[in-house]
Design brief:
Layout lengths: L1 H10 L7 H15 L8 H24 L5 E3 L5 E3 H78 L5 H4 L2 H26 L4 H22 L10 H21 L5 H6 L7 H27 L6 H18 L1
Antiparallel strand pairs: 1-2
Helix pairs in contact: 1-3, 2-3, 4-6, 4-7, 6-7, 7-11, 8-10, 10-11
């Protein structure tokens, strides 16, 4: 009877006298484990098919003999009702299936949670990018106001020849110059204040650089080199050339029609004209610095050395502010 017990287990069905149930179970297993169904596991399937065939033949023979009575006896001597055996078998199967289901659901849940976190990260990332873009767009308009302050101030300085010490020292120009210096200081404070309100790192940094440039420019404006300080004519002549070259760069740059200044205000930099003009200004700045270096090398003991270095600082802050 032990063989019959195992035969029913092999076919995966409960103990029954219904041969149609046995035949149906056999056909399902035969289809699944036939060597032709899975060539990669043909050897393994062949062994399983042999067991299935033997189990089917044994049950078929047993049922035909009419000895099946609804109960069997195991070698231990205990008698189990077929229904109890089937309940036990089904309970084990349901438990295994439930565990597998929970694992599948947990895997799906984890994958969905991972996808949700990724989507949330991307959503927040693009929200941040959009917010930064919006802030930059708003700051760009505010930054144009700052640059207009600079444009008006420096253009006025050169247009009225206030860079020429002899002209600005004339009685009718002294009040104009004093008013200009006062206005320049006010604008520096205004630019500092407006720059502190900018939300984007890009434009707040640009504003800080422009404030530095304006402070250097103010220092240059307030403390020009007196002619009497240098007794060597060639040294003063060399210094005058470097002053003229730096002033000419400033004078030309801070012109409202200058495409480089327009691009610095936030306009498009893609035009060939802008790129060409910008390249020329960079070349002019380099030549001006070479002129200053030539003076510093040729006249290292001149009392004008500190003033020449001040021009270097002005050119450097100017370059970082607008290029």
């Amino acid at each position: 009877m032990e063989d019959i017990y195992k035969a029913f287990e092999i076919l995966g069905i409960s103990y029954t006298t219904d041969m149609s149930v046995v035949s149906k179970a056999f056909r399902v297993l035969a289809k699944r484990y036939h060597p032709d169904s899975n060539p990669q596991k043909s050897a393994e399937n062949q062994k399983k098919m042999q067991m299935i065939n033997e189990a089917y033949s044994l049950i078929k023979k047993y049922l035909k003999s009419g000895e099946f009575s609804g109960s069997i006896r195991e070698p231990t001597g205990r008698t189990h009702d077929v229904k109890e055996e089937w309940v036990h078998y089904r309970s084990r199967w349901e438990k295994a299936w439930e565990e597998a289901r929970k694992k599948r659901e947990e895997k799906i849940r984890m994958e969905m949670e991972k996808r949700r976190r990724e989507e949330e990260f991307l959503r927040r990332f693009w929200e941040k990018v959009a917010k930064m873009k919006k802030v930059e767009d708003e700051d760009e308009k505010k930054f144009e106001v700052i640059l207009n302050y600079v444009l008006v101030l420096i253009k006025f300085y050169y247009k009225n020849n206030l860079h020429n010490v002899s002209i600005r020292s004339r009685p009718y120009n002294i009040a104009v110059f004093d008013g200009y210096v006062k206005k320049l200081r006010e604008i520096i404070k205004r630019v500092e204040f407006e720059g502190s309100k900018l939300g984007s790192e890009r434009f707040s940094e640009k504003a800080r650089i422009i404030v530095k440039f304006l402070n250097v420019f103010l220092n240059t404006v307030m403390f020009p080199a007196p002619q009497s300080i240098e007794r060597v004519a060639s040294a003063y002549e060399s210094y005058s050339r470097l002053v003229e070259s730096t002033d000419r760069i400033m004078m030309d740059f801070f012109n409202s029609e200058n495409p480089v200044f327009i691009s610095a205000k936030g306009g498009k930099r893609s035009s060939d004209n802008q790129k060409e003009v910008m390249a020329k200004y960079k070349d002019r700045i380099k030549k001006a610095l070479d002129t200053i270096e030539s003076f510093l090398t040729g006249y290292p003991s001149s009392p004008l050395v500190d003033y020449a270095r001040g021009r270097v600082e002005m050119l450097e802050s100017f370059y970082y502010a607008f290029f």
